[in-house]
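Whiteboard transcription, Tuesday session. T.W. wrote the structure tokens on the left side:
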């Protein structure tokens, strides 16, 4: 794979594909469609024969997999792995499953890192996937439990692994939850951003940092695993 596509034609046409090893911050306000947007991007990659790892700090692994099965992806045969940081915090007796590895909590960075590493090994070294997407949803949740310096070191390891393995990394941040200095510090880890903002008709999206100029803002709607660009602002 020479580059990665978002599966959103208007943005892909402008960007011309994301280079292997690219790390992106996906930032937007609460309830702005960030989860559905990143899932549709991942779904596009999986349907193209790639693999994906999602670190879920807000939803159980089962709920993440439900989204993909509800949108027509056969998770039983796809290369989709979830690091579930939620279920054990709820006190639910559980164990690892075929597509889900459990960490004890969002603050268990060592355990999370071990499970991420296992998926990297499985998909890239063993299965030799032609392309892999890696997502943490979300960085903001982890920041509720640990300090910025600790999180920065953790993220630095895995943005590095994304680069070294020619993968695509997408890291979700809740806008308005962090001060400007925190966002500025985190931005150092990434090559660009997918930015969402509220608009008169709903929400708009743009991509910046991966091309000489940011893309225009586009209003968008999500229906299942399909993102429709409504119109440029």
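and on the right, the sequence the group agreed on:
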């Amino acid at each position: 794979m020479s580059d990665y596509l978002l599966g959103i034609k208007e943005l892909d046409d402008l960007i011309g594909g994301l280079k292997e090893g690219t790390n992106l911050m996906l930032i937007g306000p609460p309830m702005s469609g960030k989860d559905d947007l990143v899932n549709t991007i991942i779904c596009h990659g999986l349907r193209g024969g790639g693999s994906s790892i999602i670190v879920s700090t807000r939803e159980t692994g089962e709920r993440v997999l439900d989204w993909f099965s509800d949108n027509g992806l056969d998770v039983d045969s796809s290369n989709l792995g979830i690091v579930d940081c939620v279920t054990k915090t709820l006190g639910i007796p559980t164990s690892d499953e075929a597509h889900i590895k459990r960490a004890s909590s969002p603050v268990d960075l060592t355990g999370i890192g071990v499970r991420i590493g296992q998926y990297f090994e499985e998909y890239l070294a063993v299965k030799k996937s032609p392309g892999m997407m890696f997502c943490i949803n979300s960085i903001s949740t982890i920041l509720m439990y640990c300090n910025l310096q600790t999180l920065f070191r953790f993220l630095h390891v895995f943005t590095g692994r994304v680069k070294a393995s020619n993968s695509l990394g997408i890291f979700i941040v809740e806008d308005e939850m962090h001060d400007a200095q925190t966002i500025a510090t985190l931005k150092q880890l990434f090559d660009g951003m997918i930015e969402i903002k509220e608009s008169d008709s709903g929400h708009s999206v743009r991509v910046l940092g991966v091309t000489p100029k940011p893309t225009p803002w586009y209003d968008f709607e999500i229906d299942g695993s399909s993102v429709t660009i409504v119109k440029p602002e």
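Someone added at the bottom: The chain has a mean pLDDT of 93.
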